[in-house]
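Ticket #4471: structure output looks truncated?

Reporter: J.K.
Steps to reproduce: submitted the chain below (263 residues) through the standard prediction queue, then opened the result file.
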Amino acid sequence: MATFSTLDFVIDSGIARITLNRPDAANGISMQLAQELLQASLACRCSTAVRAVLLTGKGRMFCAGGDLNSFVENAANLEGFIKELTTYLHAAIANFAHMRAPLIVAVNGAAAGAGFSLAACGDLVLAARSAKFSMAYTGAGLVPDGSASYFLPRIIGLRRAQELILTNRRLGAEEALEWGLLTRVVDDAELAAEAEKLAAQIATGPTGAYGAVKKLLASSFEATLETQMELEGAAIAAAAISRDGQEGVAAFLGKRAPVFSGM
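Returned output as attached by the reporter:
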């Protein structure tokens, strides 16, 4: 496995844990962090041992977005620098979106800019009660990246996405939950334990079925009703003959808890 310096990455008991580890820089996304996030995402997507992915940040902040200091340092070739950085970041997010394992994001503090984007791309998102969310891009004369313009309108609707991006309105955790951005808000001291509990639950589930669900939900925004139902039919038929599908039906009929293999 690759050696990482800007994030911590470990796979254990079916759970891949990714922790952004630049706390002195508010976990800002530097070129190296973007590259390492891509490497970690590839390991998650390509390993059959990974059945849940848990993403969080070290320190007081989840992620304050792009490392703007690096923008100044690379001013002579800033356009090329940003295109390269976003290439790595966007490839990582694409891997998270297309992998079988659900992505659980635990937002432990401020999530701004690309940090907000990372939170929005999660399949399940927990946030500490003190967490704050802000797009922040246009305040610096920039525009969203990291999939925000794709996920936010789908999650909260166009009008609210416009408000967040154009006015840089800051949302507290409770309001973000009310808007539908979050799965659950928990007390700060309980965030790590609750995120681990949820990851352990997901890691013992039918991973293949979870992957199929992710595909179906993604296609639902583009497909016609008939096309979507055709995709559903094919997906449930494939699930029914899978090892976990067979186990799930047998357990239901036998009135016992299923033991899913993730295959």
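Triage note (M.O.): checked the attachment and the full token line is present. The CA atoms of residues 128 and 206 lie 28 Å apart.
Status: closed, working as intended.
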